[in-house]
């Protein structure tokens, strides 16, 4: 499956390095400056008018932030890329740029919690019609697209039950109806899945997760067709959700090991999913790399690796979760995902805390579900940790 011609590790190290002679930084510096001074007013004017490259004010562009954008542009093989202060800033700026009153957006129900709030709470306020579809009912999604679709918004694999959405199939139908296709690729990263190659127009990320990878910086990324990204950039300049240079540096540093980390996350998650699948103390495992996962065939087609995220349900109720988590030594009980360290969180406490038990059940989320973001620890240690934790229940 893996496509070595993509050269991610090479691009991550070299895509942002400026050409030219003389002394060069091997590790790019952090430009803290908010503003950039010009001795020559004509030069300043040319930069202000976009006639020559340069930076003026860090809400618009910054010499540490731009190399990160150029690197992600290369990894996504996109025409353009811009960054944001958080993943939600990337998603909200993109949706609020492209959707104006009177428009219609079609999306899946299983989007990230914050994204779902935009669709349910903020879009209707703006007079944007929202059609939220059953994530795996592709025929329903196609039928909704045919009723009118300025934007088709997808996310795959989804949180927390790792559903896999057929990007190519739905993008084709959306384009027949002149829809703009956006995919949240946070769980997969470009190493495992490239939505632009599958027909998407735009791809968004929470860079807070795998792209940074170390739980120490927040950020968001938007890559894709230049005319669309430029529109969102114009909104972001005014809206102000710019990425800070420090965070850009941290994410750029994280990207240098993205391919290595994702390979490890993929291998370990597959081992752990298979182990849990065969464990008598586990009721169900959700991982697209398992042959009995309902969307395994789509995942094999559109992904180069199945990722580091999995979830599993224990027999019994939430009390079992409360018993298991303190017994695990190599996982932080914490929100978020995609870190080098293993993170566990029950959706009952994290993403789906505000819902009632009935609502969670309707979404197919068992009370005893545990989301497990597999870190890069030695996998034997993680397996032994899970085994001893489960055997004591
Ligand atoms: C975390 C996450 C977001 C939001 O990103 P932030 O950086 O927390 O704002 C969006 N989509 C997905 C899939 C996420 O996991």
From TrEMBL:
PROSITE patterns: CYS_MET_METAB_PP. The keyword Hydrolase does not apply. InterPro entries: Cys/Met-Metab_PyrdxlP-dep_enz (IPR000277), Cys_met_metab_PP (IPR054542), PyrdxlP-dep_Trfase (IPR015424), PyrdxlP-dep_Trfase_major (IPR015421), PyrdxlP-dep_Trfase_small (IPR015422). Keywords: Pyridoxal phosphate. It holds the Pfam family Cys_Met_Meta_PP. PANTHER family: CYSTATHIONINE GAMMA-LYASE (PTHR11808:SF80), TRANS-SULFURATION ENZYME FAMILY MEMBER (PTHR11808). This is Cystathionine gamma-synthase. It comes from Halospina denitrificans. The lineage of its organism: Bacteria, Pseudomonadati, Pseudomonadota, Gammaproteobacteria, Halospina.
């Amino acid at each position: 499956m893996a496509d070595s011609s993509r050269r991610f590790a090479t691009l991550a190290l070299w895509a942002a390095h400026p050409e030219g002679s003389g002394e060069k930084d091997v590790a790019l510096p952090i430009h803290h400056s908010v503003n950039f001074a010009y001795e020559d007013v004509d030069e300043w004017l040319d930069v202000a008018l976009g006639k020559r490259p340069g930076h003026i004010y860090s809400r618009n562009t910054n010499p540490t932030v731009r190399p990160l954008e150029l690197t992600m542009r290369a990894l996504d093989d996109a025409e353009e890329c811009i960054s944001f202060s958080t993943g939600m800033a990337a998603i909200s700026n993109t949706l609020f740029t492209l959707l104006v009153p009177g428009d219609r957006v079609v999306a899946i129900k299983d989007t990230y919690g914050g994204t779902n709030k935009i669709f349910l709470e903020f879009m209707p306020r703006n007079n944007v019609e929202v059609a939220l579809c059953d994530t795996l009912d592709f025929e329903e999604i196609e039928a909704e697209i045919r009723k009118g679709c300025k934007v088709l918004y997808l996310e795959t694999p989804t949180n927390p039950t790792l559903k896999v959405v057929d990007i190519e199939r739905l993008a084709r139908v959306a384009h027949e109806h002149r829809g703009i296709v956006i995919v949240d690729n946070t769980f997969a990263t470009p190493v495992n899945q490239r939505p632009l190659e599958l027909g998407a127009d735009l791809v968004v990320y929470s860079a807070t997760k795998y792209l940074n990878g170390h739980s120490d910086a927040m950020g968001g990324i938007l890559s894709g067709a230049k005319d669309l990204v430029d529109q969102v950039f114009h909104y972001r300049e005014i809206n102000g959700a710019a990425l800070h240079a420090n965070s850009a540096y941290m994410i750029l540093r994280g990207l240098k090991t993205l391919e290595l980390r994702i390979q490890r996350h993929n291998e370990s998650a597959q081992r752990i999913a298979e182990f849990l699948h065969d464990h008598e103390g586990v009721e169900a495992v959700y991982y697209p790399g398992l042959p009995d996962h309902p969307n395994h065939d789509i995942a094999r087609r559109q992904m180069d690796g199945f990722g580091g995220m999995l979830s599993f349900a224990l027999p019994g109720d939430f009390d079992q979760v409360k018993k298991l988590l303190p017994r695990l030594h190599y996982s932080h009980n914490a929100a978020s995902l995609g870190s080098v360290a293993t993170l566990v969180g029950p959706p009952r406490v994290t993403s789906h805390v505000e819902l009632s038990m009935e609502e969670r059940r309707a979404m197919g989320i068992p009370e005893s579900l545990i989301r497990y973001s597999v870190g890069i620890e030695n996998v034997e240690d993680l397996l032994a940790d899970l085994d001893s934790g489960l055997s004591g229940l």
